[in-house]
Amino acid sequence: MRAVVVNSFGGPEAVEVVEAEVPEPRARQVRIKVSAAALNPVDAGVRAGAFGGAGKRIGLGWDVAGAVDAVGVASSWSVGDEVVALDYGVAKPLGTHAEYVVVDTTAVALAPATVDAVRAATLPLNALTAVQALDLLELTSDQSLLVTGAAGAVGGYAVQLAVHRGMAVTGLAREGDEELVRSLGARRFTGGAVADRSFDAVLDAAVLGEPALAAVRDGGRYVGVIPQAQPASVRGVRTDAVEVGADGAQLADLVRLVDEGVLTTRVAETFALDDAAKAHARLEEGGVRGRLVLVP
Question: What secondary structure, in 3-state letters, does the chain show?
Answer without folding.
Answer: CEEEEECCCCCHHHEEEEECCCCCCCCCEEEEEEEEEEECHHHHHHHHCCCCCCCCCEECCCEEEEEEEEECCCCCCCCCCEEEEECCCCCCCCCCCECEEEEEHHHEEECCCCCCHHHHCCCHHHHHHHHHHHHHHCCCCCCEEEEECCCCHHHHHHHHHHHHCCCEEEEECCHHHHHHHHHCCCCEEECCCCCCCCEEEEEECCCCCHHHHCCEEEEEEEEECCCCCCCCCCCCCEEEECCCCCCHHHHHHHHHHHHCCCCCCCEEEEEEHHHHHHHHHHHHHCCCCCEEEEEC
